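dumping the sequnces here before i forget
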Amino acid sequence: MTAQHVRLVTGLLVPASLLLGLAGLVLMQLGIVEFRAPARAVTAPATTIVASRPFTYRASGDYLRNGHPEDAPLVEVAAPQPLEIMTFEVGTADYGRCVADGACRPAETRLQDGADLPVTGISFHDANDYAAWLSRATNSTWRLPTIEEWLFAAGSQAVDPALDSPTDAGNPAERWLAQYEKEMVLGDDAFATPEPLGSFGANEFGISDMTGPVWEWTSTCATRTVLDTEGNVLSHIDSCGVRHLEGRHRAAMNFFVRDARGGGCAVGAPPDNIGFRLIREPAWHEALFRSAFGRR
Amino acid sequence: MNDPDNINVSRRALLAGAALAGVVGTVLASAPATAEDAGVVTGPPPDLANLPRRKVTLVDPPFVHEHEQATDRGPEVVEFRLVIEEKEMVIDEYGTTVHAMTFNGTVPGPLMVVHEGDYVELTLVNPDTNLMQHNIDFHASTGALGGGGLTLINPGEQVKLRWKATRPGVYVYHCAPGGPMIPWHVVSGMNGAIMVMPRKGLSDGNGKPLKYDRIYYVGEQDFYIPRDEMGNFKVYESIGDGYDDMLRVMKTLTPTHVVFNGAVGALTGEGAMQAKVGETVLFVHSQANRDTRPHIIGGHGDYVWATGKFHNRPEVDLETWFIPGGAAGAAMYTFLQPGIYAYVNHNLIEAVELGATAHIMVEGEWDDDLMTQVEAPAPIV
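..and the predicted 3d for all of it:
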């Protein structure tokens, strides 16, 4: 075949395949043609849709006013987007399929003999690797929730980290003691061992295990915001090597940590176990549908 | 773990240990000619008829029974009763268990306090609900393997031992029933400490008396829990079943847990120690088996008897103090700032990864002169 022939053939093939591909994509997105991952069939995990509602949550990050730490402000969201989130945390069996496909590192799960346990011993990267793999395998977009999205889905089970302790400029220890006592109360009296998925019940939306001994990664970076006496922002710094975890209490964790053990200089209560759940981004037509009707 | 061979091996090992202990006991009992060498009390018994007697009710660590620091009273016979309890205990937040051997049901056993010149009269009880022979070796006592040679008792027996507290200081006591049983019993929790106070109380060695407002007893314990093929800690049905496996882990000299007061987190959160700014706290710290290095994060040791013996002048202003395995130490500190302090074994891997962390919650006024944040965190200029 000469170079001319090649050019001729590709000249015809490229636009033709583009057209075909586009048609295929439209069909798939409309759900008329079902996409199947070539390697192995992966069923999309069970999800729950949280309908839009006005809600309020405690902002993440550290706040300093006039040089002293204070509780982060409350954020009011009038009309958040509806959210599709995994009903359960990612389980060891689900995660194992990603490992088997060579797309995820094996987790350092503490107990390995129950297939329906939440996967734990997961770093921020591991969670993102899984999200990328699941997105490919199900032809959808899966990602970690932001802290706002997580709290929106947690509803009445969201824990407000505010200390409600007066900022005593003269005695920084007051907030340290208040924080310690708060985490002591929020800390469990049960064992930190992960229990099978669904063991800790569902919240008002039907989402399970948001109060279990597995803390969940969010994509929200640690921040520090410096305010003046009047509350005007003087500076704001993102520190994305540290991401927030949500669970029984809010925590900030280096992205590569898979297991946060207790004690040492960090005198607070560390997360018992680190796992995750994902949200699914709606496709364009789903988004249209959801915003038109509030629910799918 | 239900493998009958394994159980047989365990039983053989248990019997071997008991046999060794038996030999020791026999030597002591059948050697009256050299009794003094062996440390057996000879000669007329002390005239105890005129000495007052006092019965002490022990309390669970980290607390310490009521006691005088300095005393005007003369020597007394101080009566204690320790009941040995073999029981399954949870040693970490994940529910890992050990078939513990304990004095009075706690790891460590309770801290006993007497004064120099007092007689310790201990009734040691081994209820028939236990499976093993036990005894007690007081490092503070003199002779008979610290009393071990005179106290070996079977389940269903009790024994009474009296010894004179001649050396002031904090000292380890532990079970030592012979051979491989010795380390196994000790790393299964069977150890504690006794404090022999100078009759005039503590002093800085230059004539200045030292008093404490609170006392805490921190017993550090190394555990060696076997794992299965998947890396999970194993659970054994009864105390002998895990013996062979545990011995293998013990011989690596690498503990799986290093904890205070018997479990990871036993002295944090709800169990955290408490103090107030201006209060002086005496921390008694024992480790019956392995070296340790206590450190108060954010504080100091004002007066430290690292090797625990009060006739030595205490060291001052220490950051970390070294307590050799098989000893107890004491550190006195007056808290000067409020906040959360971490009391750790400053091998920080042991503190954070293996469990050797306690917390002290201290309330009071902040001292800006000692420390202040001159500029709060802000972007670099």
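The mean pLDDT of chain A is 83.
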